[in-house]
Design a protein that fits this description.
By secondary structure, the chain is an alpha+beta fold. It folds into two domains: 120 residues, DNA Polymerase III, Chain A, domain 2, CATH 3.10.150.10; 90 residues, DNA Polymerase III, subunit A, domain 2 (DNA Polymerase III, Chain A, domain 2), CATH 3.10.150. It has nine helices and 16 strands.
Length: 244
C-alpha cells in the first residue's frame, strides 16, 4: 500500500513514529542485534533499539502527542530496516515500515523473551553526569586501533580510568610494559572510577559520534553500567567484570 493511502486509513493508530534520520542511527547499531541472541528490532515505551544483554542502544521517539507502547515487542526486520524511510508502531502491535512510497506491516515475533529496554534505559542508577570531549581521533589513532582488535582485547589487561577530568586507558601487554592513552576530556574534573570496558563496544559509539562531544553517565562502582548519550540516542555498556 502506498504511503498516502496507508496514512489515510491509519490516522490516529500510531503510538510511536521514527523518521529517516532516526532509522539511520538504528542501522549503525544493528551489529548489536546481529551478534547477540535477540536478532531483531526491540520496541518498548517510547524507545526503539537493540540489546545483547551486554550493550543497549536506543533511539527515543520525541513526538509528545504519541504515547508509546505498554508492551515490549521484537520484530524480524533488520534487513528491510536498511532501506526504510520511516517506521511506526501501531496500537495493535504491528510495525509499519515505509520503503520508497510503499508501506508494509510486520507482526511482532512470538514466544521470545525480550527485555524491557525502556525499563533498562530509565532504571539504571548513575552517580556522575558530565560532558565528554574526544582527545584523539579514534579512526586514526594507532594505539586505539590495536586495543580494539580481538588480539588486543584478549591479550591486554586494561583499565579505564575516569579521573581528574580525563578518561585514560591503561593497557598491559605483559608484566614489563604499559600503554597509556588519554581518550576523553570530561567537563567535570571530580570524577573517580576505574573500570574495564570492551574497546570494540566503545568504538561503535565513537564511530557514530565522529569525534564530537557527548554526555556521559557513570555508576557508583566498577560493576555499574556506563551510559553514553547524544541528542535522543543512548548507548549503555556493561563493564567486563560483570560480563565475565
Amino acid at each position: 500500500m502506498n504511503i498516502t493511502e496507508y496514512n489515510s486509513k491509519n490516522m490516529g493508530k500510531q503510538v510511536l513514529v521514527l523518521g529517516k534520520d532516526d532509522i539511520k542511527v538504528l542501522n549503525h547499531f544493528t551489529s548489536i542485534a546481529k551478534s547477540g541472541e535477540l536478532k531483531g528490532l526491540i520496541v518498548a515505551g517510547k524507545y526503539v533499539g537493540f540489546t545483547d544483554t551486554y550493550r543497549l542502544a536506543t533511539v527515543k521517539d520525541t513526538h509528545e502527542e504519541l504515547s508509546g507502547t505498554n508492551t515490549v515487542y521484537i520484530y524480524d526486520v533488520l534487513d528491510v530496516l536498511k532501506k526504510a524511510k520511516s517506521l511506526a508502531v501501531l496500537k495493535d502491535g504491528k510495525l509499519a515500515i515505509q520503503v520508497g512510497i510503499e508501506v508494509t506491516e510486520y507482526e511482532p515475533m512470538k514466544d521470545i523473551r525480550v527485555p524491557n529496554i525502556a525499563t533498562v534505559r530509565e532504571g539504571l542508577d548513575y552517580e556522575t553526569y558530565t560532558e565528554a570531549f574526544p582527545s584523539v581521533n579514534f579512526a586514526e589513532n594507532v594505539v586505539w586501533k590495536m586495543l580494539k582488535t580481538p588480539a588486543g582485547q584478549e591479550r591486554y589487561k586494561k583499565y579505564f580510568k575516569f579521573e581528574n577530568g580525563k578518561v585514560i586507558v591503561e593497557a598491559y601487554p605483559n608484566e614489563n610494559s604499559k600503554l597509556v592513552l588519554e581518550i576523553l576530556e570530561l567537563e567535570k574534573d571530580r570524577t573517580s572510577l576505574v573500570t574495564d570496558l570492551d574497546c570494540k563496544y566503545l568504538d561503535l559509539w565513537f564511530k557514530w559520534t565522529k569525534n564530537s562531544k557527548f554526555e556521559l553517565a557513570l555508576g557508583k562502582n566498577n560493576k555499574c553500567a556506563v551510559k553514553f548519550s547524544k541528542d535522543k540516542v543512548d548507548y549503555i555498556v556493561m563493564p567486563l567484570t560483570v560480563i565475565e
